[in-house]
Amino acid sequence: MKTTLRTMLGATALAAFTTAAIADTTLTIATVNNGDMIRMQGLTDDFKAKNPGIELEWVTLEENVLRTRVTQDVATKGGQFDVMTIGTYEVPIWGKQGWLVSMNDLPASYDVDDLLPAIRGGLTVDGELYAAPFYGESSMVMYRADLMEKAGMEMPDAPSWHFIRRAAAKMTDKEEGIYGVCLRGKAGWGENMAFLTATANSFGARWFDEEWNAQFDSPEWKEALTFYIDMLTAYGPPGASSNGFNENLALFQQGKCGMWIDATVAASFVTNPKDSTVADKVGFALAPDNGLGKRGNWLWAWSLAIPAGTDDEDAAKKFVAWATSKEYLALVAENEGWANVPPGTRTSLYENAEYAKVPFAQMTLDSINAADPTAPTVDPVPYTGVQFVAIPEFQGIATAVGQQFSAALAGQTSVEDALANAQKLTTREMKRAGYMK
Question: Which pLDDT score is estimated for 12?
Answer without folding.
Answer: 41
